[in-house]
Amino acid sequence: MCGIVGYIGKRDATPILLEGLHRVEYRGYDSAGIAITRPGGLQVLKCQGRVRDLENMLPKRFKGAPGIAHTRWATHGEPSDHNAHPHCDAANRIAVVHNGIIENAAALRARLMSEGITLRSETDTEVLAHLIAAVPAETLADAVRQVLRIVTGTYALAVLDAERPEAIVVARNGGPVVIGIGDREMFVASDPAALVAHTRSVVHLDDGEIAVVRADGYETSTLDGGPTAKTPSVIDWTSGSFDKGGYSHYMRKEIVEQPEAVRRTLRGRIEPRFQTAHLGGIELTAGELLDIRRIKVLGCGSAYIAGCVGAHLIEQLARIPAHAEAASEFRYRNPVIERDTLYIAVSQSGETFETLAAVQEIKRKGGRVLGIINVVGSTIGRECGRGIYVHAGPEIAVVSTKTFTCTSIAFALLAVHLGRIRDLSTADGRRLTRALAAVPEQIEEIMGREDEIARLAEMLLGCEHAYFIGRSAGYCVAMEGALKLKEVSYLHAEAYPASELKHGPLALITPQTPTIVVIPRDDLFSKNVSTIEEIRARRGPVIAVTHPGELPVKVEAAFTVPQSEPELDPILLNIPLQLFAYHVALRKGCDIDKPRHLAKSVTVE
Ligand code: AGP
Q1: Ligand 1 midpoint to CA 539 (Å)
Q2: Distance (Å) from CA 232 to ligand 1 centroid
Q3: By the 8 A CB rule, do 103 and 152 touch?
Q4: Is 406 an active-site residue?
Q5: Which of 484, 486, 594, 600 is catalytic?
Q6: What's CA 446's distance to the chain center, in Å?
Q7: Full-prediction pTM beyond 0.85?
Q8: Helix, strand, or coil (residue 482)
Q9: How many angstroms separate the Cα of 546 from the Cα of each of 314, 472, 528, 551, 575?
Q10: Is 126 helix (H, G, I), strand (E, B) or coil?
Q11: Phi-psi bin for 462: left (phi > 0), alpha (psi -120 to 50), beta?
Q12: Atom of ligand 1 nearest to the CA of 299
């Protein structure tokens, strides 16, 4: 979950590496470091803290190339100067930056210590530097290969050798590695965001691959040394799309961008002739889709919750039993994979380890899986080989917002597509595709009343706990609302199905514990009104997120969103909860784009 960057070429590596680190800092931000090659050896600087802290302590003469750099999300050894990467061998000849977990590090550390090696950190990664320095090898790549054969675990790795500065060696097993192809210079990174300012031509390493990267090119091979072929692809986005664009936070920028992002998700996918959705990327014929008897959606965090919204849409519109499950749980229960079940993997980054492993498990057992992914060219996208790219654009803030909305829209398109192959009528197809086309403007209408939401956010200042409740798909909105508030404002927020409240959680209702109730004007409206009555009877404050019209019950505050078709209402009801979380965090002075202890893409188990 760390970010690695590397550069080899004629230019001074330092500014290129620092700029790249800023771009991947959302992958982990508890410490940072850099190593560059100069005549006479390596220069290494690292510290606990942010990339800007590293930048502030860099001496002017810290120049040279090639170089590698790292921004960390601690797994082994707390955030500190000595646990920051790069890690080097005793002679400071080899420098290593690593994203992942070396599972047999304890044994390797013990072996090194028994051989008299002094370890300078508590990390798993440091063993790699000592081992690579110690093995007799013709080339750096050979040395790295030999060491990786005795290592178990996951890694995205970049290695420098002061005595062999003509190449950077990178390797991948679980963590993403991208090679950027420049003009007589090359770049390596965990994420294209770190190199898009210099090139848009990239190749992605696959698991089990190693690459020797020189200024004039690269070679890829397997750990056994067999050459592999790569086809460069072009990154969709320009460097500008990764900028904050004058917004105070990426989170707010990405919330405000949603109308445009949704238009991209919908572009070319509404098929008015047949009142359905056209999804070229799923590569399943109507016949194959008709054979589907069940749908299982897998993802983690917000991707899992978007999957819950998706499962509701598919069951309502296509009448196929659909269920979402946390990918991390799915894999370990030795799941029964069925031929007539379609599995859908959901991921913004396309790199989340548990979701990737679930996809590989399904494929290993012969199951059919498609992806609903944001990052084009990402590992899960390539592993699925078919699916829907949501085109939400780069999402930098750790908390996912526009991708949640665009993923829900993609699910609505898929549900209409599946439904129109079955019993969903032309009239329903028209009703839903028209409503989908109206969503961007409806989101703009909500954005126009942000001040109202900011005032609601004031109500939570001073609270330690908050509950989010809803029924049916409204419960999914409650889950997402609670997750956003937790992630970005550190306020303890729990989501419950509204009907579950009286089976226990009602005991927690107090005048200091507000409840956010998702109460659309649908056939469950009166049930939700009764639940509000139950909360108010215990003097619990209620904030209602609902549709225009009088509420037949008194609440502390209410925010209304435009009404869409009932099946699509959850998508709009969620928007104010994103802004709500943002404004609570803003008033609490939280680090909104980089919440503590989190990272944007979780590439370790
Ligand atoms: C959501 O705000 C979080 N960043 C997190 O829960 C995220 O949704 C989860 O880690 C899954 O990430 P993915 O969509 O990139 O797979």
Answers
A1: 35
A2: 27
A3: yes
A4: no
A5: 600
A6: 25
A7: yes
A8: helix
A9: 23, 15, 11, 9, 12
A10: helix
A11: left
A12: 16
Residue-wise pLDDT for 123-157, tens only, equals 999 999 999 999 999 999 999 999 999 999 999 99
Atom number in ligand 1 closest to CA 398: 4
- 600 labelled catalytic: yes
d(CA 80, CA 554): 52
Q: How many CB atoms lie within 10 A of CB 306?
A: 32
379 contacts 351 by C-beta, under 8 angstroms: yes
399 Cα: distance to centroid of ligand 1 (angstroms): 7
Ligand 1 close to Cβ of residue 488 (< 6 A): no
| Ligand 1 neighbourhood includes 347 CB (under 6 angstroms) | yes
Atom of ligand 1 nearest to the CA of 403: 14
pLDDT tens, position by position, 18-68: 999 999 999 999 999 999 998 889 999 999 999 999 999 999 989 999 999
**Omega prior to 541 cis, within 30 of 0:** no
- What confidence category does residue 236 fall into, taking pLDDT thresholds of 50, 70 and 90? confident
User: Residues 472-518: pLDDT tens digits?
Assistant: 999 999 999 999 999 999 999 999 999 999 999 999 999 999 999 99
Mutate to test the pocket of ligand 1, among 396, 597, 601, 605 (most ligand atoms within 8 A of CB): 601
User: In 3D, which of 562, 559, 395, 588 has the Cα closest to residue 485?
Assistant: 588
Task: Report the distance separating Cα 364 and Cα 305, nearest Å.
Answer: 25
Find out whether the beta carbon of 173 lies less than 6 Å from any atom of ligand 1: no
Q: Is the CB of 265 under 6 A from ligand 1?
A: no
